[in-house]
Amino acid sequence: MLKLYPAKMPFFVPFIFPSLTYAKPDSNTKIYLTFDDGPHPEITPWILMVLKKYHIKANFFCTGANIQAYPHIVKEIIAQGHQIGNHTFSHVDAWRTSHKKYIHEISETDRLLQTAGISSKLFRPPYGRLTPGLIKKIQSLNKEIEIVMWSILMGDFSRFFVPDYAISYLSHHIKAGDILVFHDNAHSFPRLKQVLEPVINTLLAKGYQFATL
Ligand SMILES: [Zn+2]
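Above: the input record for the complex with zinc ion. Below: its predicted structure, written as C-alpha cells.
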C-alpha cells in the first residue's frame, strides 16, 4: 500500500514562506478542520449536518463561483457559526496565472462575501501554490489578511487515500493547533464520507476540541 496521505506540510516550507499560517501551535487542545472548494449543494449540507451532530465548528474556504451559485448554503455555514475564507473565484493556480488576474480573483470573491454581509480575512491559495511576489501583493491588499496553509493534508482527493490508515495516522501524529485540509467537492466526497465522522470521533476521544481559525 502506497502511504502518500495524510501528508504533513514539509518542515522547510514555513521557513521559506514564514508569513503564512501553517498551524496554531499555542492552541492548547484545538484542532482546525478546513473544507476547501465549496460550497457544494449536496456535500456542504452533509458536512454541516455532521458538524452539528458533534456540536463542533469548522472552516470553509470557498470559491467565488460557488459562493455566487449557492448563496443560501453560504448563509447556512455562517448561521451555524462556522468560518468562511476566500479560495479565489475560479480555483486558479498561482503558478499559471498573472498577478493581475489572481488579485482580481481574490477581490471579486471578497466582494461577493461582503455583499452577503460576511467579512473574512482568511485566504487559502488553491493547490497551496503561491510565489513570494504574489504573497506580497496579497498582503498589501489588506494588512489583516491571513494566508492559511495547513499542517496536515488529508488527501481525500487521492486514490491512494485509505480511511483506516488515515485514522491511525491522525491518532499517532496529531498535535494541538494542527490545521487539517479536507475537500468539499464531488471528486473527494466518496472518501470524505467514509472518514469525517471517524476523524471527529478519534480526535474527540483524545481530548481535542474543534475551532474556527
Ligand atoms: Zn482548492
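Notes for the reader.
DSSP finds eight helices and nine strands in the chain.
The mean pLDDT is 96.
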